[in-house]
Write a structure and sequence with these properties.
Shape: flat
Distance between the termini: 89 Å
CATH topology of the largest domain: Immunoglobulin-like
CATH architecture of the largest domain: Sandwich
Structural class: alpha+beta
Strand content: 35-45%
Radius of gyration: 24 Å
Number of domains: 2
Strand order of the largest sheet: 1-7-6-3
Order of helices and strands: HEEEEEEEEEEHH
């Protein structure tokens, strides 16, 4: 009798397990995970007319030909993407989760409450990352803006203008 009861319990558990697992698998498939400052590709359904991003400070999208969308992580956190047709019907809804830089190529140095982030591929260089201390972030951002300005103007005048004295 005990063997029969155990067999029935196992059979019931085997039947109930998919009921609990399928929603979890479906939710996982509906979430797009993107690393901050990186992009991910996603295929849109046919006849999309409008794309809505819940919080554009967290993620941004760029529509490409062939029904592709490039999702770029802009800030930490979660938001959502909704694709609508011309009549306003929802064709697709996805959660977007933006995580911080990960992996062995990224190093974060803490000095008390202050954080500095470095990209170490292969040499460690300063990297602009949300959450870094204000002074560290500003210094790197200013250097990047000065460099980009010099490249855009094509001359050394812009570089000299932004150079510290």
């Amino acid at each position: 009798m005990k063997a029969t009861r155990a067999g029935k319990t196992t059979a019931i558990l085997a039947l109930l397990l998919p009921i609990f697992l399928i929603p979890a698998i479906a939710r996982a498939a509906e979430t797009i995970e993107v690393v901050l400052d990186q992009a991910s590709l996603m295929k849109l359904p046919d006849k999309v007319s409008t794309i809505v991003i819940g919080n554009p400070m967290i993620a941004d999208v760029a529509v490409q030909s062939g029904g592709l969308v490039v999702v770029t992580g802009k800030g930490f956190g979660a938001t959502n993407l909704i694709a609508l047709d011309r009549s306003g019907a929802v064709l697709m809804e996805r959660s977007i989760l933006v995580k911080g830089p990960q992996g062995r190529d990224t190093v974060q140095v803490y000095r008390g409450p202050l954080r500095e982030t470095f990209s170490c591929a292969p040499d460690c260089e300063r990297r602009i990352t949300l959450g870094d201390s204000a002074d560290f972030f500003s210094a790197i951002a200013t250097q990047a803006e000065t460099r980009n300005g010099a490249a855009a103007s094509g001359g050394a005048a812009a570089a000299a203008k932004g150079a510290p004295r």
